[in-house]
Design brief:
Layout: E1 8-16, E2 26-33, E3 38-46, H1 50-69, H2 74-84, E4 96-104, E5 108-114, E6 120-123, E7 126-127, E8 133-136, E9 144-151, E10 157-161, H3 163-166, H4 180-194, H5 200-214, E11 224-232, E12 236-241, H6 250-259, E13 263-267, H7 269-279, E14 284-285, E15 298-299, E16 305-307, H8 310-322, H9 331-341, E17 344-349, H10 369-382, E18 387-392
Parallel strand pairs: 12-13, 12-17, 13-16, 17-18
Antiparallel strand pairs: 1-11, 2-3, 3-4, 4-5, 5-9, 6-7, 6-10, 8-9, 10-11, 14-15
Helix pairs in contact: 1-2, 4-5, 6-7, 8-9, 8-10
Protein backbone atom coordinates (compact mmCIF):
# COMPACT_ATOMS: atom_id res chain seq x y z
CA UNK A 1 0.00 0.00 0.00
CA UNK A 2 2.80 2.42 0.80
CA UNK A 3 5.33 1.34 -1.78
CA UNK A 4 6.65 3.91 -4.21
CA UNK A 5 4.08 4.56 -6.90
CA UNK A 6 1.19 3.07 -4.91
CA UNK A 7 -2.11 4.91 -4.81
CA UNK A 8 -3.53 6.42 -1.66
CA UNK A 9 -7.19 7.26 -1.17
CA UNK A 10 -7.56 10.66 0.46
CA UNK A 11 -11.05 11.13 1.92
CA UNK A 12 -12.74 14.26 3.22
CA UNK A 13 -16.27 15.39 3.90
CA UNK A 14 -18.28 18.37 5.09
CA UNK A 15 -21.74 18.49 6.60
CA UNK A 16 -24.31 21.14 7.55
CA UNK A 17 -27.52 20.65 9.54
CA UNK A 18 -30.83 22.01 8.24
CA UNK A 19 -31.68 25.34 9.86
CA UNK A 20 -33.84 24.83 12.92
CA UNK A 21 -32.77 21.23 13.54
CA UNK A 22 -30.32 19.96 16.15
CA UNK A 23 -29.16 16.81 14.36
CA UNK A 24 -28.32 16.07 10.74
CA UNK A 25 -30.74 13.95 8.70
CA UNK A 26 -27.84 12.83 6.47
CA UNK A 27 -25.24 10.27 7.52
CA UNK A 28 -21.85 9.51 6.04
CA UNK A 29 -19.57 6.65 7.05
CA UNK A 30 -16.27 5.17 5.90
CA UNK A 31 -14.32 1.99 6.30
CA UNK A 32 -10.79 1.18 5.24
CA UNK A 33 -9.94 -2.51 4.77
CA UNK A 34 -6.12 -2.53 4.74
CA UNK A 35 -5.83 -6.27 4.19
CA UNK A 36 -7.80 -5.89 0.93
CA UNK A 37 -6.29 -2.49 0.03
CA UNK A 38 -9.88 -1.32 -0.14
CA UNK A 39 -11.85 1.73 0.91
CA UNK A 40 -15.64 2.01 1.27
CA UNK A 41 -17.76 5.14 1.77
CA UNK A 42 -21.53 5.40 2.20
CA UNK A 43 -23.68 8.55 2.18
CA UNK A 44 -27.36 8.35 3.06
CA UNK A 45 -30.11 10.97 3.20
CA UNK A 46 -32.97 9.97 5.50
CA UNK A 47 -36.57 10.84 4.72
CA UNK A 48 -37.42 14.29 6.11
CA UNK A 49 -35.12 15.89 8.63
CA UNK A 50 -34.14 15.81 12.29
CA UNK A 51 -33.96 12.77 14.55
CA UNK A 52 -36.16 10.46 12.44
CA UNK A 53 -34.19 11.19 9.29
CA UNK A 54 -30.94 10.67 11.18
CA UNK A 55 -32.08 7.24 12.38
CA UNK A 56 -33.02 6.20 8.83
CA UNK A 57 -29.74 7.48 7.38
CA UNK A 58 -27.55 6.00 10.12
CA UNK A 59 -29.20 2.59 9.84
CA UNK A 60 -28.69 2.70 6.08
CA UNK A 61 -25.00 3.60 6.22
CA UNK A 62 -24.30 1.02 8.93
CA UNK A 63 -25.94 -1.84 7.07
CA UNK A 64 -24.60 -0.83 3.67
CA UNK A 65 -21.03 -0.68 4.95
CA UNK A 66 -21.32 -4.18 6.37
CA UNK A 67 -22.99 -5.73 3.32
CA UNK A 68 -20.55 -4.18 0.84
CA UNK A 69 -17.51 -5.11 2.96
CA UNK A 70 -18.79 -8.70 2.98
CA UNK A 71 -19.35 -8.61 -0.82
CA UNK A 72 -23.06 -9.37 -0.50
CA UNK A 73 -25.31 -9.15 -3.57
CA UNK A 74 -26.29 -5.52 -4.19
CA UNK A 75 -30.00 -5.92 -4.86
CA UNK A 76 -30.57 -8.37 -2.01
CA UNK A 77 -28.64 -6.09 0.38
CA UNK A 78 -30.68 -3.04 -0.67
CA UNK A 79 -33.94 -4.92 -0.07
CA UNK A 80 -32.78 -5.98 3.41
CA UNK A 81 -32.00 -2.33 4.18
CA UNK A 82 -35.39 -1.11 2.91
CA UNK A 83 -37.22 -3.86 4.83
CA UNK A 84 -35.39 -2.94 8.05
CA UNK A 85 -36.05 0.80 7.99
CA UNK A 86 -38.84 2.04 10.27
CA UNK A 87 -41.93 3.34 8.47
CA UNK A 88 -42.74 7.06 8.61
CA UNK A 89 -46.13 7.37 10.36
CA UNK A 90 -47.05 10.42 8.26
CA UNK A 91 -46.03 9.28 4.78
CA UNK A 92 -46.41 5.53 5.45
CA UNK A 93 -43.11 4.73 3.73
CA UNK A 94 -39.60 3.83 4.84
CA UNK A 95 -37.02 5.53 2.77
CA UNK A 96 -33.39 6.60 2.79
CA UNK A 97 -31.25 7.29 -0.25
CA UNK A 98 -27.70 6.05 -0.52
CA UNK A 99 -24.50 6.41 -2.48
CA UNK A 100 -21.97 3.62 -1.97
CA UNK A 101 -18.37 4.05 -3.14
CA UNK A 102 -16.27 0.89 -3.15
CA UNK A 103 -12.68 1.46 -4.29
CA UNK A 104 -9.43 -0.47 -4.31
CA UNK A 105 -5.84 0.65 -4.55
CA UNK A 106 -5.38 -1.31 -7.78
CA UNK A 107 -7.62 1.29 -9.43
CA UNK A 108 -10.89 -0.64 -9.58
CA UNK A 109 -13.94 1.25 -8.35
CA UNK A 110 -17.67 0.74 -8.06
CA UNK A 111 -20.41 3.23 -7.21
CA UNK A 112 -24.00 2.29 -6.36
CA UNK A 113 -26.61 5.05 -6.22
CA UNK A 114 -30.22 5.08 -5.15
CA UNK A 115 -32.05 8.37 -4.87
CA UNK A 116 -29.05 10.66 -4.39
CA UNK A 117 -27.79 13.16 -6.99
CA UNK A 118 -25.44 11.66 -9.56
CA UNK A 119 -21.83 11.60 -8.39
CA UNK A 120 -19.00 13.35 -10.23
CA UNK A 121 -15.74 11.79 -11.45
CA UNK A 122 -13.23 14.43 -12.53
CA UNK A 123 -9.99 13.64 -14.33
CA UNK A 124 -7.57 16.55 -14.74
CA UNK A 125 -10.47 18.88 -13.99
CA UNK A 126 -12.88 17.47 -16.58
CA UNK A 127 -15.89 15.27 -15.90
CA UNK A 128 -15.69 11.65 -17.01
CA UNK A 129 -19.02 10.29 -18.28
CA UNK A 130 -19.47 6.68 -17.19
CA UNK A 131 -21.77 3.89 -18.35
CA UNK A 132 -23.99 2.22 -15.76
CA UNK A 133 -26.55 -0.52 -15.38
CA UNK A 134 -29.87 -0.27 -13.57
CA UNK A 135 -31.19 -2.68 -10.96
CA UNK A 136 -34.84 -2.50 -9.92
CA UNK A 137 -36.26 -4.06 -6.79
CA UNK A 138 -39.18 -6.43 -7.44
CA UNK A 139 -40.26 -5.99 -3.80
CA UNK A 140 -40.20 -2.18 -3.61
CA UNK A 141 -41.83 -0.39 -6.52
CA UNK A 142 -39.87 2.54 -7.89
CA UNK A 143 -36.64 1.70 -6.06
CA UNK A 144 -34.08 1.67 -8.85
CA UNK A 145 -30.32 1.62 -8.36
CA UNK A 146 -27.60 2.73 -10.76
CA UNK A 147 -24.39 0.68 -10.65
CA UNK A 148 -21.14 2.02 -12.10
CA UNK A 149 -17.94 -0.03 -12.49
CA UNK A 150 -14.82 1.73 -13.72
CA UNK A 151 -11.06 2.20 -13.39
CA UNK A 152 -9.66 5.22 -11.57
CA UNK A 153 -6.33 6.86 -12.28
CA UNK A 154 -3.92 8.89 -10.15
CA UNK A 155 -5.23 12.44 -9.56
CA UNK A 156 -8.89 11.47 -10.18
CA UNK A 157 -11.49 13.14 -7.95
CA UNK A 158 -14.75 11.51 -6.95
CA UNK A 159 -17.39 13.81 -5.45
CA UNK A 160 -20.76 12.72 -4.08
CA UNK A 161 -23.41 14.62 -2.12
CA UNK A 162 -26.95 14.71 -0.80
CA UNK A 163 -29.63 16.74 -2.54
CA UNK A 164 -29.20 19.54 0.01
CA UNK A 165 -26.13 20.48 -2.07
CA UNK A 166 -27.67 20.16 -5.53
CA UNK A 167 -30.87 21.91 -4.41
CA UNK A 168 -29.13 24.78 -2.62
CA UNK A 169 -30.91 28.05 -3.37
CA UNK A 170 -34.02 26.21 -4.59
CA UNK A 171 -36.88 28.64 -5.31
CA UNK A 172 -34.75 31.78 -5.31
CA UNK A 173 -34.79 34.17 -8.24
CA UNK A 174 -31.25 33.22 -9.30
CA UNK A 175 -31.60 29.47 -8.65
CA UNK A 176 -35.28 28.57 -9.15
CA UNK A 177 -34.35 24.90 -9.65
CA UNK A 178 -31.46 24.93 -7.20
CA UNK A 179 -27.71 24.91 -7.73
CA UNK A 180 -28.02 21.49 -9.39
CA UNK A 181 -25.30 18.95 -10.15
CA UNK A 182 -24.16 21.10 -13.06
CA UNK A 183 -23.53 24.08 -10.78
CA UNK A 184 -21.49 21.96 -8.37
CA UNK A 185 -19.50 20.56 -11.30
CA UNK A 186 -18.68 23.99 -12.70
CA UNK A 187 -17.61 25.30 -9.30
CA UNK A 188 -15.46 22.23 -8.58
CA UNK A 189 -13.73 22.58 -11.94
CA UNK A 190 -12.81 26.17 -11.09
CA UNK A 191 -11.44 25.16 -7.71
CA UNK A 192 -9.32 22.38 -9.19
CA UNK A 193 -8.03 24.69 -11.90
CA UNK A 194 -6.83 27.17 -9.24
CA UNK A 195 -5.74 24.56 -6.65
CA UNK A 196 -5.01 21.26 -8.43
CA UNK A 197 -3.51 19.69 -5.28
CA UNK A 198 -6.26 20.73 -2.86
CA UNK A 199 -7.01 18.03 -0.27
CA UNK A 200 -10.36 16.24 -0.15
CA UNK A 201 -11.02 17.81 3.25
CA UNK A 202 -10.55 21.34 1.92
CA UNK A 203 -12.43 20.66 -1.31
CA UNK A 204 -15.47 19.32 0.56
CA UNK A 205 -15.46 22.38 2.83
CA UNK A 206 -15.18 24.68 -0.17
CA UNK A 207 -18.12 23.04 -1.97
CA UNK A 208 -20.17 23.26 1.24
CA UNK A 209 -19.43 26.98 1.66
CA UNK A 210 -20.42 27.66 -1.95
CA UNK A 211 -23.68 25.73 -1.56
CA UNK A 212 -24.48 27.64 1.63
CA UNK A 213 -23.84 30.92 -0.17
CA UNK A 214 -26.78 30.09 -2.46
CA UNK A 215 -29.22 29.74 0.45
CA UNK A 216 -31.44 32.69 1.44
CA UNK A 217 -29.95 34.48 4.46
CA UNK A 218 -27.21 31.80 4.50
CA UNK A 219 -29.60 29.43 6.32
CA UNK A 220 -29.59 25.82 5.16
CA UNK A 221 -33.01 24.81 3.84
CA UNK A 222 -32.06 21.13 4.00
CA UNK A 223 -29.36 18.91 5.45
CA UNK A 224 -26.22 19.10 3.35
CA UNK A 225 -23.41 16.56 3.03
CA UNK A 226 -20.53 16.48 0.56
CA UNK A 227 -17.93 13.71 0.36
CA UNK A 228 -14.75 13.88 -1.70
CA UNK A 229 -12.22 11.19 -2.59
CA UNK A 230 -8.85 11.96 -4.16
CA UNK A 231 -6.78 9.17 -5.71
CA UNK A 232 -3.12 10.10 -5.52
CA UNK A 233 0.31 9.13 -4.32
CA UNK A 234 0.52 9.38 -0.52
CA UNK A 235 1.70 12.46 1.35
CA UNK A 236 3.72 11.85 4.49
CA UNK A 237 4.17 13.78 7.70
CA UNK A 238 6.30 13.36 10.82
CA UNK A 239 5.38 14.86 14.18
CA UNK A 240 8.09 14.79 16.84
CA UNK A 241 7.04 15.53 20.39
CA UNK A 242 8.78 15.02 23.71
CA UNK A 243 12.44 14.41 24.48
CA UNK A 244 13.57 10.78 24.15
CA UNK A 245 13.81 8.75 27.34
CA UNK A 246 17.59 8.32 26.88
CA UNK A 247 19.40 11.60 26.24
CA UNK A 248 21.95 9.69 24.18
CA UNK A 249 19.24 9.22 21.53
CA UNK A 250 18.87 12.97 20.92
CA UNK A 251 21.19 12.79 17.91
CA UNK A 252 19.38 9.78 16.46
CA UNK A 253 16.00 11.52 16.71
CA UNK A 254 17.38 14.68 15.13
CA UNK A 255 18.76 12.68 12.20
CA UNK A 256 15.39 10.97 11.69
CA UNK A 257 13.69 14.37 11.56
CA UNK A 258 16.35 15.74 9.20
CA UNK A 259 16.15 12.80 6.78
CA UNK A 260 12.35 12.46 6.76
CA UNK A 261 10.89 13.10 3.29
CA UNK A 262 7.66 14.98 3.88
CA UNK A 263 6.00 17.54 6.12
CA UNK A 264 7.65 17.99 9.54
CA UNK A 265 6.20 19.34 12.77
CA UNK A 266 7.59 19.58 16.30
CA UNK A 267 5.42 19.98 19.40
CA UNK A 268 7.26 20.99 22.55
CA UNK A 269 9.88 23.56 23.45
CA UNK A 270 12.40 20.99 24.72
CA UNK A 271 11.85 18.86 21.60
CA UNK A 272 12.52 21.85 19.35
CA UNK A 273 15.64 22.79 21.32
CA UNK A 274 16.99 19.25 20.90
CA UNK A 275 16.56 19.37 17.11
CA UNK A 276 18.04 22.89 16.88
CA UNK A 277 21.05 21.90 18.98
CA UNK A 278 21.76 18.62 17.22
CA UNK A 279 21.29 20.02 13.69
CA UNK A 280 23.00 23.37 14.48
CA UNK A 281 19.97 25.37 13.38
CA UNK A 282 18.60 28.63 14.72
CA UNK A 283 15.32 28.47 16.68
CA UNK A 284 13.34 31.73 16.87
CA UNK A 285 10.00 32.66 18.42
CA UNK A 286 7.28 33.79 16.03
CA UNK A 287 6.31 37.09 17.66
CA UNK A 288 3.20 37.41 15.50
CA UNK A 289 1.59 34.54 17.44
CA UNK A 290 2.27 35.90 20.93
CA UNK A 291 -0.71 36.83 23.10
CA UNK A 292 -3.22 34.30 21.80
CA UNK A 293 -4.95 31.53 23.78
CA UNK A 294 -2.21 28.97 23.10
CA UNK A 295 1.55 29.51 23.51
CA UNK A 296 3.22 30.98 20.39
CA UNK A 297 4.83 29.05 17.56
CA UNK A 298 8.50 29.12 16.61
CA UNK A 299 10.53 28.84 13.42
CA UNK A 300 13.43 26.70 12.30
CA UNK A 301 14.89 25.95 8.89
CA UNK A 302 13.48 22.74 7.43
CA UNK A 303 10.54 22.44 9.86
CA UNK A 304 7.02 23.30 8.70
CA UNK A 305 5.50 23.98 12.15
CA UNK A 306 6.85 24.26 15.70
CA UNK A 307 4.42 24.61 18.60
CA UNK A 308 4.35 24.26 22.36
CA UNK A 309 3.73 20.70 23.51
CA UNK A 310 1.06 19.44 25.89
CA UNK A 311 -1.47 22.32 25.68
CA UNK A 312 -1.34 22.44 21.88
CA UNK A 313 -1.59 18.67 21.49
CA UNK A 314 -4.59 18.58 23.81
CA UNK A 315 -6.34 21.30 21.83
CA UNK A 316 -5.43 19.51 18.58
CA UNK A 317 -7.09 16.31 19.85
CA UNK A 318 -10.21 18.30 20.78
CA UNK A 319 -10.35 19.97 17.36
CA UNK A 320 -9.96 16.66 15.53
CA UNK A 321 -12.61 14.95 17.66
CA UNK A 322 -15.12 17.78 17.22
CA UNK A 323 -14.33 18.38 13.55
CA UNK A 324 -13.99 22.10 14.25
CA UNK A 325 -10.24 22.58 13.93
CA UNK A 326 -9.83 23.31 10.25
CA UNK A 327 -8.68 26.85 9.53
CA UNK A 328 -8.63 27.82 13.22
CA UNK A 329 -6.17 30.69 13.55
CA UNK A 330 -4.09 29.22 16.35
CA UNK A 331 -1.19 26.73 16.58
CA UNK A 332 -3.49 23.74 17.15
CA UNK A 333 -5.58 24.70 14.12
CA UNK A 334 -2.43 24.94 12.02
CA UNK A 335 -1.37 21.49 13.22
CA UNK A 336 -4.82 20.07 12.37
CA UNK A 337 -4.53 21.47 8.85
CA UNK A 338 -1.15 19.78 8.37
CA UNK A 339 -2.40 16.45 9.72
CA UNK A 340 -5.46 16.48 7.48
CA UNK A 341 -3.45 17.51 4.41
CA UNK A 342 -1.28 14.38 4.72
CA UNK A 343 -2.09 10.69 4.45
CA UNK A 344 0.57 8.73 6.34
CA UNK A 345 1.45 10.22 9.73
CA UNK A 346 4.58 9.16 11.64
CA UNK A 347 4.38 10.13 15.32
CA UNK A 348 7.76 10.02 17.10
CA UNK A 349 7.04 10.36 20.79
CA UNK A 350 9.65 10.91 23.48
CA UNK A 351 8.92 9.20 26.79
CA UNK A 352 11.00 11.29 29.19
CA UNK A 353 8.65 12.46 31.97
CA UNK A 354 8.05 16.18 32.25
CA UNK A 355 7.39 16.75 35.96
CA UNK A 356 5.51 19.98 35.20
CA UNK A 357 2.58 17.94 33.88
CA UNK A 358 2.10 15.59 36.82
CA UNK A 359 0.20 18.04 39.04
CA UNK A 360 -3.15 16.36 39.86
CA UNK A 361 -4.77 19.79 40.16
CA UNK A 362 -4.31 20.44 36.41
CA UNK A 363 -7.33 19.84 34.12
CA UNK A 364 -8.23 16.23 33.35
CA UNK A 365 -7.56 16.81 29.65
CA UNK A 366 -3.94 17.60 30.45
CA UNK A 367 -2.91 13.94 30.17
CA UNK A 368 0.64 12.84 29.79
CA UNK A 369 1.96 13.19 26.27
CA UNK A 370 1.72 9.50 25.44
CA UNK A 371 -2.04 9.33 26.03
CA UNK A 372 -2.77 12.54 24.14
CA UNK A 373 -0.82 11.26 21.13
CA UNK A 374 -2.83 8.02 21.26
CA UNK A 375 -6.03 10.10 21.21
CA UNK A 376 -4.82 11.98 18.16
CA UNK A 377 -3.74 8.77 16.41
CA UNK A 378 -7.09 7.13 17.14
CA UNK A 379 -9.23 9.93 15.74
CA UNK A 380 -6.97 10.30 12.68
CA UNK A 381 -7.44 6.60 11.92
CA UNK A 382 -11.12 6.24 12.77
CA UNK A 383 -12.60 9.56 11.68
CA UNK A 384 -10.24 10.78 8.97
CA UNK A 385 -9.02 7.44 7.55
CA UNK A 386 -5.34 8.32 7.94
CA UNK A 387 -2.61 5.73 8.25
CA UNK A 388 -0.82 6.44 11.53
CA UNK A 389 2.36 4.95 12.99
CA UNK A 390 3.55 5.67 16.53
CA UNK A 391 7.17 5.22 17.57
CA UNK A 392 8.04 5.72 21.23
CA UNK A 393 11.64 6.75 21.87
Amino acid sequence: MNEAGALFIDMGYSQCIKHGESICGDAIAFRRLPEEERFIAVLSDGLGSGVKANILATMTTTMALRFIAENQAILHSAEIIMDALPVCQVRKISYATFTIVDTRLNGKARVIEMGNPEFLLLRYGERVELPFRELESPKHAGRTMSVYSFEVQPHDRLIFFSDGISQAGLGTERYPLGWRVKGCLEYTRRILRDEPEISSHDLANSIMREAMAKEPHLLAGDDMTCGCIYFRHPRRMMLFTGPPYDRERDTECAEMVKNFAGTKAICGGTSAEIIARELHRKLTLDLSTVGKELPPTARMEGIDLITEGIFTLTKTAQYLESGLGSNRDDPAGQLVDLLLANDIIDLMVGTRINEAHQDPNLPVDLEIRRNIVKRIAGVLRDKYMKEVKIRFV
